[in-house]
Amino acid sequence: MSKLSKDFLWGGAIAANQAEGAYLEDGKGLSLMDIATAGKKGVSRHFTKGVQEDVYYPNHEGIDFYHHYKEDLSLFQEMGFRCFRTSIAWTRIFPNGDEETPNEAGLAYYDDLFQDMLDKGMEPVVTISHYEMPLHLVQKYEGWANRKLIDFYLRFCEVIFKRYKGKVKYWMTFNEINSVILMPEIAGVLDRTKDDFQTRSYQAAHHQFVASAKAVAMGHQIDPENKIGCMVLTLVKYPLTAKPEDVMLAEQNMRKGTFAFTDIQVRGHYPAYVKKHVERLGIHVQIEPGDLEAMQQGCVDYIGFSYYSSSAATTDPNVEKTGGNMVSGVKNPYIPTSEWGWQIDALGLRYILNRFYERYEIPLFIVENGLGAYDQINEDGYIEDDYRIAYLREHIKEMKNAILEDGVDIIGYTPWGCIDLVSAGTGEMSKRYGFIYVDRDDEGKGTLERKKKKSFDWYRQVIASDGEIL
Length: 470
Fold this sequence. Notes:
Keywords: Glycosidase, Hydrolase. The chain has 470 residues and is an alpha/beta fold.
């Protein structure tokens, strides 16, 4: 094979909580991200206080995708998208999370959204839980450390699997599920100030594994055509030197940060090294009868993952550190660094694709990849984001090499933030990823006007040529 298949799913990705806005419209309840404030050092949340007066919450309006989705989908159609990844806001379907009956207005909104995608030739790719859950479940049940959340989540899954049967085929259960350990405040919704925080984090992870597996089994039963994957944040670590200790540390970091989560969800059990790690921490995870059987019966169909950058690992404490998606790492002197300190490493994408595929031999889906940057509008009102084009071009080249040279089975490619949106990590709008500029600043000012960047026409040409013209 010398070219990518015509069935390859080119597209783009967003998340409901970072784009939709309309935070209390049509019966929607308050979510975790509705109390996230903006800041250069990251978002802050006040779980017990809820929304406060005179505080700016960027997600309340986002980019108002809720009201602009037809316009935005038309722009994606113009680029030639064959798929579009988004998420369903749990709080639109179950405003508090523990209700018996779903909110019809929320269900109807996604009916219209998915139908419009299909009408425009786009396959919906849906994340069920993308760093968003009802705030009520945090305040009353203290998040995923509480086993009751499994049942609330599965009720949500059952409703949407049945409602969107025939419209949605590609699902992912939890966005970047390894964040439940890496950033438990976001993914597990836990209070870091509590003494048992670490134990609760691992308990929350177990609950998510059980919930995910049961959702996979349920989704297959409701519609055998469903393809249900996991989604992980990839932490690519290279040894800083050929020192054996550095090589071993890099491998341990990759196992602990990424492979543990794919091993569990693809193979359906806890590997020995995970059990030993938890044992060393002195943590007891409560596993109820039937949990391990459920995990075995709910193995995922594919691996969805995010990839932005890589970093190094070394036993030497006197080295320079750099940033990354959720976690920092050791700076690698051989690769460049973005404005946010993320090290740009296109070959790392081919590397992790091969590591995943040789380990599991199931399809992979690159559902996040992109460059966050400060975009400047020139005198002609145009954004020449050549830096973004260069980043994506090199990553697509390596993706193609993985497919055509290495034989890796990849479903599709959906660059992150195909339209500018609110950053999950900092709450900023100025950290832009999109092919489409949205007139909104870090203080919530702007007209929300959409404007094509230079990368818009470039990506349109990439898709039209099936990746031949880069």
